[in-house]
Amino acid sequence: MERKVLITGVAGFLGSQLARDLLAEGCVVVGIDNLSSGKITNIKGLPEDRFIFKEMDVCSRKILEDSDFTTVGEIYHLASAASPKYYQASPFDTINTNTIGTKNMLELAKRNQAKIVYSSTSEAYGDPEVHPQPETYKGNVNTWGPRACYDEAKRLGEVFCYLYFTQYQTKVKVARIFNTYSAGLANDDGRVISSFVIQALKGEDITVYGNGTQTRSFCYVTDTLNGLKLLMKKDEANGEIINIGNPIEYPIIDLAHLVKTLTNSKSNITFHPLPEDDPKVRRPVIEKAQNLLGWMPNVTLEEGLQMTIQEYKNKLKDNP
């Protein structure tokens, strides 16, 4: 029997690429997106005989009554703006998607006895005082600031997952996803790699916030998606929170110089005030992913950047 998979946020960065992967594996994919930050162009050309798109809000109770969802056996709950630019522009929608929307998806998983992967975030660790971050670290998160609508909503989403697992034995797995990139990120997304590459290719100033000593770890999209698919597949991951990210850490200033070198750009690197609550360090401990899933990232930052730069070059040729 063919696998029927539901992806929320299917028109987004991760959702659209995951849909392509699963369709290539022979799955039937039902995708929902309210197109608040996802783009319909991301899912153009997907095979209509095996891909059903529904423009819906994941918070709608109609999802639980729709016959297209009653035979779904796997759910990837990826819906949510993930860039500070977008989630801060619609803070209440961000909270609802990650709480009410998460509860809806868990309820559907419970009814269908389906497996569900919830995309949480490394932002659950806040501005960490433990480095690198294992899944057992409880985080240093500010409830009273511009990032809280995302960080705290994702954390409450994890609580819903915990309750459905402990109360109803729902087969839920939580992925704490660290920075993921590829040219699939929208040019205006505001996240660091997409911003740096576009600025470098256009010869604009490369804008570094703070002094550039803050660090991030960057995972190429194919590695992140492989992690999510392994989470879905492995029953040993039921009821577990697992970091999905690259454990190699880079200062932002080094990233700016690397992008400048790989693009042969004449851009200047400029420095600007650090946004409020911006984490100073971020690096996952991935032993749990290695042991439970047999997962680790394969694509180096330089390899991933070269692919990203080439794709953005092509995009800019088509839409200068």
Can you put this structure into words, describing what you see?
The chain contains 9 helices and 13 strands. The mean pLDDT is about 95. β5, α4 and β6 (about 170-175) form a beta-alpha-beta unit. It has helices spanning about 15-25, 85-90, 90-110, 150-170, 190-200, 220-235, 250-260, 285-295, 300-320, and strands at about 5-10, 30-35, 50-55, 75, 115-120, 170-175, 180, 205-210, 215, 220, 240-245, 250, 270. α5 (about 190-200) crosses α9. It has a 7-stranded parallel β-sheet, with helices on both faces. Strands 7-10 form a two-stranded parallel sheet. A two-stranded parallel ribbon has the order 8-13. The protein has a domain at about 5-180 and about 220-245 and about 280-300: Rossmann fold (3-Layer(aba) Sandwich). By secondary structure, it is an alpha/beta fold.
Keywords:
320 residues; alpha/beta; Rossmann fold; 7-stranded parallel β-sheet; two-stranded parallel ribbon; 9 helices; 13 strands; 38% helix; globular
SSE blueprint:
Elements (H helix, E strand, L loop, with lengths): L3 E5 L4 H12 L3 E6 L17 E5 L18 E4 L6 H6 L1 H22 L2 E7 L26 H21 L2 E7 L2 E2 L10 H11 L3 E4 L5 E3 L1 E2 H13 L7 E4 L4 E3 H11 L6 E4 L14 H7 L7 H18 L2
Parallel strand pairs: 1-2, 1-4, 2-3, 4-5, 5-6, 6-11, 7-10, 8-13
Antiparallel strand pairs: 9-12
Helix pairs in contact: 3-4, 5-7, 5-9
